[in-house]
Design brief:
Length: about 400
């Protein structure tokens, strides 16, 4: 289980699962596998979803629960628990959202692909930290902290996009029932450390499943249930549950989602015939992210910085962080599914764009992170501090 809690191995599993999905879809058995993913399971007329939707609406809610627990911790006790800590990654995250949207719309404005503008805004934190772990030996802790804060803020925006943009025909009665479920879940979780754990834990599981079901039929995307429950749960038990779920999320939930999302047939067309949905995402993820994050992050260093204070990160480190931010993958794949749910062609091309753009960003990030890691290792061997003027504000010396 410890392997599935590491930064490196889950990223490899995730990439492998997507590669297998893409490969299978483009073999003779691809049609049969796709048909199997659309087999319905459940109670007809009551609660009936295809296998594909059980993965994307059900299992992925567990992933969002884990993400929400991490958000809750970082916002209350971690790297985003004050305005001073959050300002630079927040400004950089804004650039990493606005610039990719602008780049995407350069390709897609005025076309049927334009509704896919949220797709290149996401950063896959598991992938990004995995690349950082593989290639970043010797990097100062400040870069990982910055990237973690940046990706968490990206996640918040992605969750808002899912909740606001991809909600239709809301059933207020079911939504109220879900809200009650979230409140009950939060109150019960606060009894875990004061009463018998097993009865409370069983009750929590039942309430969580009911809350997810209420959200699923309310018209709001079902993964939002995971977010709400993760934010509502008392922090101490939430962190314990996150620790227990992490290997399952990394080893089962995300690989299954990556495999199912990547079951896309590569169109037999020339590059010029590909839709703006493909080109917009494929370019906006690596290029938009690296420009937006590095430029806005650099500007953030010069807003309100004390005279003579050391910069939080050198610009070269911001470039590396921007490249890492372009690895969209999980949330970008989900946003692609939602943005083009009614147009299979655009959906498939957007998903191919996510895969292509994320791979380009991964390669760029590997090169930039390796270069920066060598730079810091050379400084360490020479007995010089990681930063010319001392460590960044709020960071420990490397």
């Amino acid at each position: 289980m410890s392997l599935l809690r590491s930064d490196r191995f889950p990223a490899v599993v995730l990439l492998s699962a997507a590669a297998v999905g893409l490969l299978v879809a483009n073999t003779p058995v691809g049609g049969a596998v796709d048909a199997a993913m659309h087999v319905h399971l459940g109670i007809p007329g009551v609660f009936d979803l295809s296998i594909e939707h059980w993965i994307k609406d059900g299992l992925l809610a567990v992933f969002f629960f884990v993400v929400a627990v991490e958000l809750q911790f970082e916002l209350t006790s971690g790297e985003l628990n004050s305005a001073r800590k959050a300002v630079q990654p927040a400004i950089a995250a804004a650039g990493g959202i606005l610039v990719p949207i602008a780049v995407f719309l350069l390709f897609a404005a005025g076309t049927d692909s334009a509704s896919g503008w949220p797709i290149p805004t996401a950063t896959d934190i598991a992938f990004a930290l995995g690349v950082l772990a593989v290639f970043g030996r010797g990097l100062p802790p400040a870069l990982r902290i910055f990237l973690l804060a940046l990706a968490i803020l990206d996640d918040i925006v992605g969750i808002i996009f899912i909740a606001v943009l991809f909600t239709s025909g809301v059933n207020l009665g079911m939504l109220v029932a879900a809200a009650v479920g979230v409140v009950v879940f939060g109150l019960l979780s606060r009894q875990l450390d004061t009463r018998g754990r097993r009865p409370i834990a069983v009750a929590l599981v039942i309430v969580a499943i009911l809350t997810w079901a209420f959200v699923a039929v309310s018209g709001v995307h079902a993964t939002i249930a995971g977010v709400a429950l993760g934010l509502a749960m008392a922090q101490s038990p939430a962190l314990r549950v996150r620790h227990a779920l992490e290997p399952w999320v990394n080893g089962l939930v995300l690989p299954l989602f990556a495999f199912s999302a990547a079951l896309v047939v590569i169109p037999s067309v020339s590059p010029s015939e590909l839709q703006p949905a493909f080109w917009g995402v494929a370019v906006a993820l690596p290029l938009g992210k690296i420009i937006g994050i590095s430029l806005f992050g650099w500007l953030a260093l010069r807003i309100g910085r004390e005279r003579g204070a050391a910069p939080a990160l050198p610009f070269a480190d911001l470039l590396a962080a921007g490249a890492l931010g372009g690895i969209g993958f999980t949330v970008s794949l989900l946003l692609g599914e939602l943005a083009f749910a009614r147009d299979a062609l655009l959906r498939d091309e957007a998903i191919l764009g996510v895969l292509a753009g994320s791979v380009v960003a991964l390669v760029l990030a590997s090169v930039l992170v390796s270069s920066r890691a060598r730079h810091y290792r050379r400084r360490a061997r020479a007995g010089r501090p990681a930063f010319e003027d001392g460590p960044p504000s709020g960071a420990e010396p490397a």
